UniProtKB/TrEMBL annotation:
It holds the Pfam family Sulfotransfer_1. Belongs to the sulfotransferase 1 family. PANTHER family: SULFOTRANSFERASE SULT. It catalyses: 4-ethylphenol + 3'-phosphoadenylyl sulfate = 4-ethylphenyl sulfate + adenosine 3',5'-bisphosphate + H(+). Its EC number is 2.8.2.-. This is Sulfotransferase. Gene3D superfamilies: P-loop containing nucleotide triphosphate hydrolases (3.40.50.300). It comes from Myotis lucifugus (Little brown bat). Residues 32-114 form the Sulfotransferase domain. The keyword Transferase applies. GO terms for molecular function: sulfotransferase activity.
Length: 114
């Protein structure tokens, strides 16, 4: 069981889906226009992402219904989600379950909405 987790600063992270958290924290650039959903797992993240995406689309459900959730608001700590996030145009919307101390440092100097 311990082999399935990467311990970083006393926090267990599941290694099958987590990208390199150190480089994410130190190198990922959070832009001023970004909209980020940070939450604990199983705390209503999917509902919140749907609401944020509907607001982004001006209430028009056609975009929300035609693009899968992880394509509209990818999870930045996963390998696939990080690549999708880097390709998004402004305003970029993404989510994360990372504790704030492991989230990219650039968040604290940006004007991103969290």
């Amino acid at each position: 069981m311990a082999a399935d987790y990467l311990w970083m600063e006393g926090i267990p992270l599941y290694t099958d889906i987590i990208t390199d958290v150190r480089s994410l924290r130190d190198e990922f650039a959070v832009r001023d226009e970004d909209v980020i959903t940070l939450s604990y797992p199983k705390s209503g993240t999917s509902w919140t992402k749907e609401i944020v995406n509907l607001l982004h689309a001006g209430g028009d459900p056609s975009w929300v219904q035609s693009v899968v959730s992880w394509g509209r608001s990818p999870c930045v700590e996963t390998r696939e989600g990080l690549e999708l996030t880097k390709k998004q145009q402004d305003p970029c919307s993404y989510s994360s379950h990372l504790p704030v101390q492991l989230f990219p440092k650039s968040l604290f100097t940006s004007k991103a909405k969290v």
